[in-house]
Amino acid sequence: MASSSAAPNLEDVPSVDLMTELLRRMKCASKPDKRLILIGPPGSGKGTQSPIIKDEYCLCHLATGDMLRAAVAAKTPVGIKAKEAMDKGELVSDDLVVGVIDEAIKKPSCQKGFILDGFPRTVVQAQKLDEMLEKQGTKIDKVLNFAIDDAILEERITGRWIHPSSGRTYHTKFAPPKVPGVDDVTAEPLIQRKDDTAAVLKSRLEAFHRQTEPVIDYYSKKSVVANLHAEKPPKEVTSEVQKALS
After folding, report:
1. Cα 23 vs. chain centroid, distance in angstroms?
2. CB of 157 within 8 A of CB of 43?
3. Which of 12, 22, 91, 154 sits at 20 to 30 Å (Cα–Cα) from 185?
4. What is the DSSP string of 46-73?
5. 35 in active site
6. In the beta sheet, which residues pair with residue 4?
7. Do the strands 160-163 and 168-171 form a parallel or antiparallel pair, or are they unpaired?
């Protein structure tokens, strides 16, 4: 548990914040528990849907990369071990990542369940996650598979261009600049983030298919996978998610 110094004194919390949190908890009390995994390639829309799911079902969002960094910063036992591995330039072991998730899901914010994003990426990780949850007497309720054709992803991602100094974004097909290659406001040249180039995307997609498709098969055998049509507009994907979770 966090020490009392870390927790704010409730007398000092503004009433509106207390009321908002109280109302949120009352609303959440009636929601069913849900433990979800989001799987999908880069650009499939997981980042758009996860905050919506999180708010709708009162779940906590567990992004394993952020959690590892937080554990390292907080110097938790798991964090110290993770830092040792990182300092040696090694990958953080699956057991450690599962340990970080184990620590996180005991927090009050995860009382109603969680959304796991970016993990498990391999079948071994999925098995270790399931073993840990089983010890706590729970299991994964649903795996949301953001299924989308590679060609659509390529169009989505490689069409993205940004104006670096303002952060304005354009898309060659969906939101093109008035003049190709230049910012509407300043007429300065647009750039592509290096992750958004076709070559980088291709290698990320190959890794995704190789490692993560078996994870979908693994959970399909447990009958918990919901396949979403991730190429549809976000609102339609949201309603598919709600159907899958109802």
Report:
1. 26
2. yes
3. 154
4. HHHHHHHHHHHHTPEEEEHHHHHHHHHH
5. no
6. none
7. antiparallel
**Cα 69 to Cα 114, 134, 143, distances in angstroms:** 19, 26, 25
Q: Architecture of domain 16-59+112-149+206-245 in CATH?
A: 3-Layer(aba) Sandwich (3.40)
Q: Which of 24, 193, 210, 243 is catalytic?
A: 193
168 is catalytic: no
Query: CB atoms < 10 A from the CB of 191, how many?
Result: 12
3-state secondary structure of 171: strand
What's the rounded Cα separation, in Å, for the pair 84 and 89?
9
Q: What is the pLDDT at residue 240?
A: 96
Beta-bridged to residue 127, according to DSSP, are none
204 is catalytic: yes
pLDDT tens-place string over residues 4-58: 445 668 888 899 988 988 888 888 888 899 999 999 998 899 988 999 999 999 9
Structure confidence at residue 158 as a pLDDT band (50, 70, 90):
confident
Coil/strand/helix, residue 239: helix
Nearest to 138 by CA among 105, 93, 100: 105
